[in-house]
Amino acid sequence: MDTLQAWNCWPLGVADIADVMALERMCFRTRWTREQFLLGLERGAFQILGTRERGALLGYVAYSLIAGEMEILNIATHPFHRRKGLATRLLGAAIDCCQRRGAGEGFLEVRRSNIPAIDLYRKFGFIEVGVRKNYYPDNHEDALLFRLDFLPLTSRADQPT
Ligand SMILES: CC(C)(COP(=O)(O)OP(=O)(O)OC[C@H]1O[C@@H](n2cnc3c(N)ncnc32)[C@H](O)[C@@H]1OP(=O)(O)O)[C@@H](O)C(=O)NCCC(=O)NCCS
């Protein structure tokens, strides 16, 4: 079975930007603009995977893959559909895709106060490797920098069933 099909996650493109922005409005104080999504997708600067139920977008993850390094840029799930494993599937799918394209490690930044996201990343084995003081312009909150060294695909226990 195709990797993404197994995770029930699919690549999103320009036609999906309105849905992603609607989800962002429910999930984030500061958001990307349509132009940022458009430019990023058109130039291949990042990829977005999404998961839908009966057509409705319930979650997405945006990531980049540059020189063997994956960076998680954003991940969010619909507030009414949390704690159901959606983010786990999205993050698992993004890591899978990057590993199959040769990535060996992943990075991300997260607000120090964002316990749900930090717990999610720790569950995947991400470890804290640094702090960017006063990183976020809206409230000067610190960003924690996390890193994951990918296990060989054959020994990963978090594959979809
Ligand atoms: C963070 C977020 C993506 C998690 O999505 P989700 O679909 O609820 O995540 P999952 O159901 O896959 O949960 C996986 C794990 O994450 C952790 N987690 C998720 N929500 C949590 C919460 N409210 N409190 C503590 N840990 C939480 C848990 O370890 C959970 O595993 P468990 O349910 O077995 O305990 C979601 O809360 C969200 O969209 N938040 C707003 C956007 C955001 O802050 N994104 C991160 C930007 S860095």
UniProtKB/TrEMBL annotation:
Keywords: Acyltransferase, Cytoplasm, Transferase. The keyword Transferase applies. It comes from the Bacteria. The keyword Transferase applies. Residues 7-151 form the N-acetyltransferase domain. GO terms for molecular function: N-acetyltransferase activity. Transmembrane segments: none annotated. SUPFAM superfamilies: Acyl-CoA N-acyltransferases (Nat) (SSF55729). Pfam families: Acetyltransf_1. NCBIfam families: rimI. Belongs to the acetyltransferase family. RimI subfamily. This is Ribosomal-protein-alanine N-acetyltransferase. It comes from Humidesulfovibrio mexicanus.
